[in-house]
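ingest -> validate -> predict -> emit
validate: passed (alphabet ok, no gaps, 132 aa)
predict: started
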Amino acid sequence: MDRDQIRQWLNGTDAIRSACDLDLLRFFMRHSNALLTTEQIANFVGYGHSQIDEALEHLLAGGQVTRLKGRAADADLYIVEPGDGTGGSMTSLLDLNTVAGIETVFEMFIVAIAIVAGLLISNAVVSPRRSL
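emit:
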């Protein structure tokens, strides 16, 4: 699945509305056998408690995730449903996202190097107006 197909699929589905939805779904795919509270999930995924609650409700309502109540207080088990009605494109999207993430990190690293090099060169070429 290439980037154009991903954009087309995301525009044509209500399965994922935000980055939080996608990150939460990826988290559950990687940690499907963990009994967690929503506060723990918010800490692990890196979003606010209200964003996690909203994304959880959306994924539960859409059938992408099933919640099983745990015995521990407030802890639940979340399971990603393989038959999400997307014809496997959800799995392709999540698989490709890892590669895209690595590419993004590499691109950010290159940009950071360019910024540092530019600052060093400009500092060497242009002298400061006044000394401190």
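The helical segments are 3-11, 19-30, 38-45, 49-62, 89-125.
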